[in-house]
Design brief:
There is one protein chain. This protein is mainly α. It is 42% helix and 4% strand. It is built from four helices and two strands; from the N terminus they run αββααα. It has a two-stranded antiparallel sheet. The longest helix is centred in the last third of the chain and has 15 residues. It starts with a helix and ends in a 10-residue tail after the last helix.
Length: 97
């Protein structure tokens, strides 16, 4: 799968709002989005563990239910980093500007 092979090498960190059709995503939902490339692969079974670990590493457990758009800039950056970490099957290198 091309998408999965790209996802092994590249994690994307995006910010600003993350609302679709007026529905704000929670912190946990944004981190879970990082697992999308693995949805229909054998690695999908790893998703709950990878998501939990990404949330833990980025200190997001306490704000998991908060809407992403209502977070401070620093919190949004941590969530975006958590999303990028969740995407990586083998923990990709992450560059932070």
């Amino acid at each position: 799968m091309l998408g999965a092979s790209i996802a092994e090498q590249l994690g994307v960190s995006a910010g600003d709002g993350l609302e679709i059709a007026g529905v704000p995503f929670t912190v946990a939902e944004v981190v879970e989005m990082g697992r999308y490339p693995w949805l229909r692969t054998p690695q999908a079974a790893e998703s709950p563990t990878v998501i939990a670990e990404s949330m833990r590493v980025c200190h997001l457990e306490e704000i998991a239910d908060r809407p992403f758009g209502q977070l401070s800039g620093g919190q949004q950056a941590r969530v975006s980093l958590g999303r990028a970490l969740a995407q990586g099957r083998h923990r990709p290198a992450v560059a932070v500007p």
